[in-house]
Amino acid sequence: MSPATVKIKICGVTLPDDAGSVAASGVDFIGLNFWERSKRYVAPDRAPMLATIVRAMSPSTQVVGVFVDADVDEIQRVLARVDLDIIQVHGDERPEQLATIAHLTKRPIWKALAVGGARDLDRLDAWPADALLLDAPTPARGGSGSPFDWALAADARLRYPAIPIVVAGGLHAGNVGAAISTIAPWAVDVASGVEVAPGVKDARKLADFVAAVRAASP
């Protein structure tokens, strides 16, 4: 059975027009990617403009900063430019690093985990995170458009019911309803599934995705 309301995160926003249209669509979170090797990289000096547009269009939408193996000093340098609501770490960080980042930034922390098999879901409760994002294992650290075995995520929900689970990896309007039905996640995260090119969102795909999530979680 799906949750009452599944939250939506649209990740990899890079353009001002997209920041406005995504925020206007009523989603809960918008992701800005600060990993320089990402195809959806946003430079820190450009991010404040995007965040300002998001908050002007939808004050309730939270801005998530995505980092990969960044030390806390780097994260704080970005925070000095843009007031992020949430920090998402998507690299090989250790639990103690998350605790340090949370303490020094005073922000909620999401930890992304690549799920290639059941062993990747052992000891999820060891992460001092406010949410865990389960994604397909890719060299690009997400955004590949490839799903993973949803049965693993469903098992994680059963084993760790107190942990908010965010599901990513290959989601789009055509399959997100099935993902919600199978996993019952706290939130879903999409990038490529609502794009015409990396970092360029498609208005129709975005609207269809949001509608599909709402239909699956009445």
Give the helices and strands, then pairings.
Blueprint (H helix, E strand, L loop, with lengths): L6 E4 L5 H9 L4 E5 L13 H11 L4 E6 L4 H8 L6 E4 L5 H11 L3 E6 L16 E5 L14 H10 L5 E3 L8 H8 L3 E4 L4 E3 L2 E2 L1 H14 L2
Parallel strand pairs: 1-2, 1-8, 2-3, 3-4, 4-5, 5-6, 6-7, 7-8
Antiparallel strand pairs: 9-10
Helix pairs in contact: 1-2, 3-4, 6-7
Written description of the protein model:
With 218 residues, the protein is α/β, with parallel strands linked by helices. It has helices at residues 16-24, 47-57, 72-79, 95-105, 150-159, 176-183, 203-216, and strands spanning 7-10, 29-33, 62-67, 86-89, 109-114, 131-135, 165-167, 187-190, 195-197, 200-201. It has a single domain, classed as TIM Barrel, CATH 3.20.20.70. An eight-stranded parallel barrel has the order 1-2-3-4-5-6-7-8, surrounded by five helices. Strands 9-10 form a two-stranded antiparallel sheet. It is globular and about 40 Å long. The termini are close together. The mean pLDDT is 93.
- Give the radius of gyration: 16 Å
Number of strands: 10
State the helical fraction. 25-40%
Q: Round the mean pLDDT to the nearest integer and report it.
A: 93
Strand order within the widest sheet? 1-2-3-4-5-6-7-8
Note the beta-strand portion: 15-25%
The CA-CA distance between the termini, in Å, is: 11 Å
Low-confidence stretches: none
The arrangement of helices and strands along the chain is: EHEHEHEHEEHEHEEEH
Instruction: Please give the CATH class.
Output: Alpha Beta
| Total helical elements | 7
Tell me the number of structural domains.
1
